[in-house]
Each structure stands twice: as C-alpha cells, then as structure tokens.
Request: fold
Amino acid sequence: MKALVWEAPRTMVMREQAQPHAEADEVVVKVAYAGICGSELSGYLGHNALRVPPLVMGHEFAGEIVEVGESAAQRNPAIAKGQLVTVNPLGYCGVCEFCKRGLNQLCVKRKLIGAHRPGAFAEYVTAPAELVSPLPEGMPLRVGALTEPVACGVRIGELAGDVQGEVCLVIGAGPIGLLAIQALIHQGAARIFVAELDEERLAMGAAIGGEALNPKQVDVVQVVREATGGLGAAVTIDAVGTAKTRQQCVSAVRSTGTVILSGLHEESSVMPAAEIIRREIVVRGSFAYSPANFAEALRLLAEGTIRLDPWIIEAPLAEGGQWFDRLIDAPGNVAKVLLIPQD
Ligand SMILES: [Zn+2]
Ligand SMILES: [Zn+2]
Reply:
C-alpha cells in the first residue's frame, strides 16, 4: 500500500509499505479521508518528543472496515466488515484510575494512533476495536473525519461549564479555536469575542459567530473588559499557546472566572501568578477528549450543529508534504486539510 512517511524535519515521502492485517482485537480501516492536525505540524518540524521518524502520522480519519480480527466483534459489537467508521485515536488501558473515571485521554498507558503506532496517512490503518465508532446513518466520510478535532472542541466546552448568557473570549481562530467558538455558542454563550492576528482566519471566526478582534488593531483585553462593565469575560480560551496569549487570557477573564489552556505553541511560558491568586482565577488545561466527548462530537456533526465547511481542502495523499508546509508557513482561510489516500 501507499503511505506518506515522515522521515526527517520538513521531509514527507510517499513509500510503498506492506498492507497491515488485524490482530485479534483490531480492525483494518481503508482510509477515505485523513485530516492534518496542528499537533502534527510541530511534529513535522521535529519539535515534538512524542513523534519519532520514520513515522506515518494521521489520527483524524474516517473510512471503511475491510478486516475484522477474531475477537474484535466481541470487544465492540457495533462493528462489522463494510461499515463506515471513524476512530478515537487515543488508545487506553481501561483499568487505570483515569480510565475508571471516564477520562481515558489521561490514561497512564495512553497510545496515540499516528504517533505510538502507524497512522492514517496511508491506504490502510489498523485500530483497536473498542476505539471504532460507526458513522451515523447518512453521514459522509469527509464529515466523519472531523470527529476527532470536533471532540477537542467539545472537551473545551465541557470544561468551560455553564456559559449560558455569558461573555467569552477565544484566542486563535485555527481549527480548535473555530470549534471551541461553536461549542460555546451551542452552550448558550451570549457573546464570544475571537482574537486572531491572521485576517483570513479572523474572518472564519467571525463567519461562525465570533466577534472579531485583531490584536494588531485593538487592545483585546480592554475591549473584553469594556464589554463586561470592567469585570472581564466569564471564560477565556487560549487556542494558540504563547506567553502573550496565555497572559491575555488571564487579564481578560473576570475574578473567579475560568481560563482554559489548549494551545501548545510554547512548551512553557511566564504566567501572572499573583494576578491568578489575587483574583481567584481558575486555570485549566484541556487535553484531547474523553470517549463521551468523542460520541458527543459525532452527534453534533450528525445534526449539523458544528461545521468547518466551507474551509475544508481535499488533497491527494501524495501532496501531503506540501500541505504541511503551507499550513505552517501561510495557512490562510483553510480550517482543515483532508488527505485522500485512495486513487
Ligand atoms: Zn488532532
Ligand atoms: Zn488507563
């Protein structure tokens, strides 16, 4: 089969590889669409300890089950050959403290498809049976491939809590920022400001319901404070992850409000700890999604509550490397690139 292999920083090569077969508790999925994730962009540059070359990345995908391992159907009775599915790429043990609490994304033995095992930038990929979800009746495969990033937005919304009638701020209008805005709208937030330096990305944020702020033109913190009688937003979300955006999220949130950190641009940065203390601000990390968030994402996509259209690009797998470069250098108004491995 053909596979797009990351071999060194900024180097992706199409290679011929043996077609994988299912272990007893696995299925083989013939990949229809596989999205490029922001975390893979830093991996591609070699900035990510999780990903070691040579590696087939790809963890946002949908396709058709073409092989079912002997005991796979026992582990997940919902699956069968020929079924159209998407896959939660975060493998978990099921028995550790976090798995028992439904927080499988924090499993102590977590294994990510496309990082710890071969991913979906290939014609075929294997996956543990319990991670496979059939697509709801009538859902196109290209929509199913968005379930994983949408689930990240659902998790952010869950951690934001009750935002009914509240003012929120989302910094960053990349895919996760766009999805977080929609999760907050779905949860009844009254106003959502979106801050983004790139005008094209900012326009996407405005088109899905955010109130656009370009930090080059306005003082984001000041605008949010003025809109809230000087208090600050109930919830602020950082979908970028620089020292600057993390600090803005703290400054723009009201006392006792919640700052959710999702963006991972910088590994560590200076935070205004005294302000967090004196204003009793809650700072929360948000990582990936629980299995419940993943199921909710599939439901929201099925009912059309969340979308990334019309900013989705479809491209042949062979052009994957070029799209990695483009997304790093000048993403513009592209919310998601879906690679197509089949001819
Ligand atoms: Zn992802
Ligand atoms: Zn576990």
Remarks:
- The first helix runs from residue 38 to 44.
- The CA atoms of residues 237 and 336 lie 20 Å apart.
- The pocket of zinc ion (ligand 2) is lined by residues 92-94, 96, 98-99, 107-109 (CB under 6 Å).
- The radius of gyration is 20 Å.
